[in-house]
Amino acid sequence: MGKATVWLGKMRDSGRFVKGHIPWNKCLTPQEQALSRRKQLEYLRRYNANRREQMIQYLKNYHEKNKEKLNAQCRANWKKNREKRREYKKQYNKTRLIELKRHRGVVKKGSPEYCAKMSEHMKTFWKNEVLARKLFRGWRSRPNKLEQSLIRLVSENKLPFKYVGDGTVIIDGRCPDFINNNGRKQVIELFGDYWHNPSVNPNVRPNATYEATVNHYQKFGFDCLILWEHEMENEEKVIETIKSFCD
Predict the structure, then answer these.
(1) Which CATH architecture has domain 141-246?
(2) 125 Cα distance to chain centroid
(3) From CA 30, how far away is CA 45, in angstroms rounded?
């Protein structure tokens, strides 16, 4: 009888039809079936919560009973592996030192040599257009409020420029904000007063000034128009400036 019961249980679990088996939802309406399911789920939730509380209580009791034994074992393991940890730390520091020497050529972070080396490394990185575009995609660069207003002006007045400040165009490590879409080598940069004007902020980077930007694009045959943040307040004047720049 026991074997038959086990066999019927296996057949039922396998999902196959067993003669004489009464399904759990027989003669139940859909509402009653849903209610029965909810009751089963509620029972399982309570059961799992009780089991979790029992397990937590068991572990607390076990820890209290064996507290001294566990602490002594941990201290023994810590002392036993002390020399291994020291050797690993020494080897790790040695490996890290070799990596710094090989990749950067300097050891002390923040030193003038280190800063110069990292500056050269970043200049080389930005000159690689593929890597620079990947970085812009990772940043998910989007136009700021000033750029959005200029995009609107360009679109409403049908000016021959398109927004490429999201890394679409890289010119020797620099990403212009707008570029001429009629084939002419013209770019537009929209400068914030604080980040690019030395009279407003004395700590402006040398390569972010008006002269440095214009000279950079001239090396590659591009004419560059600089629009300042305070100039965007007069939209009519900005439109006239762009049109005269195109002519």
Answers:
(1) 3-Layer(aba) Sandwich (3.40)
(2) 19
(3) 23
